[in-house]
């Protein structure tokens, strides 16, 4: 399994979203596995700042040349910022999925992190999908 499948310090969902906690803010994006399955990403629709999100709620949609998929929040919180550069450059998710966050949440429920997968658990999960 390639090291690009999961990075330590991130938490993962079985729907292939990741969350990385940075102080009191959580960054959310999609994994390398997800971007590879989607193909060339052409559009991302994200919520407006101020929106309250519960874990597993839809955060928006991501569209590729192959499909459109819902994005789901791994944890609860309030949208504080969306990655504005994705409007003109959505394909950056294809190039750098772990460095390209989509949404920042504040007032996060860190207790929910224990229900997510670690990097090792996610790699094992993905290895069973191949």
TrEMBL record:
Residues 25-106 form the Lipoyl-binding domain. The modification N6-lipoyllysine is found at residue 66. The keyword Repeat does not apply. Pfam families: GCV_H (PF01597). PROSITE patterns: BIOTINYL_LIPOYL (PS50968), LIPOYL (PS00189). The keyword tRNA processing does not apply. Its cofactor is (R)-lipoate. Binds 1 lipoyl cofactor covalently. Keywords: Lipoyl. PANTHER family: GLYCINE CLEAVAGE SYSTEM H PROTEIN, GLYCINE CLEAVAGE SYSTEM H PROTEIN-RELATED. The glycine cleavage system catalyzes the degradation of glycine. The H protein shuttles the methylamine group of glycine from the P protein to the T protein. Belongs to the GcvH family. The glycine cleavage system is composed of four proteins: P, T, L and H. This is Glycine cleavage system H protein. It comes from Leptospira yanagawae.
């Amino acid at each position: 399994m390639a090291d690009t499948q999961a990075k330590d310090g991130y938490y993962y969902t079985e729907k292939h979203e990741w969350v990385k906690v940075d102080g009191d803010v959580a960054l959310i994006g999609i994994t390398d596995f997800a971007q590879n399955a989607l193909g060339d990403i052409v559009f991302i629709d994200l919520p407006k700042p101020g929106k309250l999100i519960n874990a597993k709620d839809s955060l928006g949609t991501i569209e590729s040349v192959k499909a459109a998929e819902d994005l789901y929040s791994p944890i609860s919180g309030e949208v504080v910022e969306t990655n504005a550069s994705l409007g003109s450059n959505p394909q950056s998710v294809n190039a750098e999925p772990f460095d390209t966050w989509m949404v920042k949440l504040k007032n996060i429920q860190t207790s929910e992190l224990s229900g997510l997968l670690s990097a090792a658990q996610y790699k094992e999960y993905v290895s069973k999908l191949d």
